[in-house]
Design goal:
One of its GO terms (cellular component) is membrane. GO terms for molecular function: GTPase activator activity. Residues 227-383 form the ELMO domain. By secondary structure, the chain is mainly alpha-helical. Among the domains are: 129-218, no CATH class; 220-383, no CATH class. Helix content is 52%, strand content 3%. The chain has 14 helices and three strands. A three-stranded antiparallel sheet has the order 1-2-3, with no helix packed on it. The protein is elongated and about 75 Å long.
Amino acid sequence: MLRHSSILTYRDRRPVNVSLGIENLDEGRTNVSTSRKREESDNGYLCPLLLEDGGGGGRTQQLGRLTFCSIDLKMFCCLLLFLLPCRGESAPEIDFRSENMFGYIWEYVYTSFLRYWLKWLIRQVTGTCELQRICSGHKPGAARTTKAEYSLQSSKNKVLRGALETTKDSLEQCVDQIMKVKNIKPAKDPKFKESLHICLLQITGYSSLYTSVEDLRKEVFSSDNPEHEAMLLKLWDLLMPTVKLESRITKQWGDIGFQGEDPKTDFRGMGLLGLINLVFFSENYTAEARQVLSHANHPKLGYSYAIVGINLTEMAYSLLKSGALKPHFYNTVQGTPELQHFHQLYCYLAYEFDKFWVAEEPESIMQFNQYREKFHNIIRTHLQDPGVCLTLTVGSKN
């Protein structure tokens, strides 16, 4: 792993003077070692250039002050922005076709050195910090929240990094602390506090949602639990209202896509989460769920409705766990995402997969994994769009 070796040393917090270049350079000194220590102030980064004497004396010489008149500083910032076309001030994407190693080196150099200088320069021109520029320069949703999340993750300040793990009850206090650290005055930027608060609700809410989903996935379906049993029987009644279930253990369960006489064995992988998703779809989109079931019972294009539904629950869970669903939830929930929003996503997947399956007309159910992966790739492609909203547009009871 590469170790950071920088060119500049931050030792002085004094304001920089107006000049165009480096003065007082001792050209006779050749054995020079360099190091860097970043100091952050409420007003940004102040950066006189220093070199350490490599002769063992431990002395530090000031080579000069890097400064520009106001117009030259603006021109220099514009040049940097042109050469480094950042999206949300994250690392620019450069295509090194020779080897991936050069891409890693570029990312390392940018995130470890160039990004801080770029932020400092832009702040001197605009008088605003990166979070302010993100909140004011992007509309609410994934475009804003993902950039704010990256900015907080990349920060060297403990208050900013800690905001990502703040509880919902402490968010307002956390926003106030960030504004204090960044010296943001509410009178000058009245919309910032509310904008950042919503971003943090979405960011921390996503983590909380994953925890809730994981808890349901780990909860084992139990025949001894009356609530679990009632939920299973409710699924049957919603999908097969005119057919009476002969008994709890019966081959009739195969009519709605379970593999055996007792459906509980099919919930092992996704636990109670798989059943809850099936019931949620059937209860809130009853007509659509029955339509999907009729397609699943087609003599040629049919598939196991319940088993495929549980499989799609696993797909939704994996996307959530990997963070791929962040753009979707950031665009569709202006606050903290809840379990119902995850169930809504499952409904979208169940309905859209059925449409996809029927349109593809696979020769056999034995090709399920192949088409499932193809559908998965389509969803992941959609999720790369910053404006993505995987929302079922058909009617819902709620």
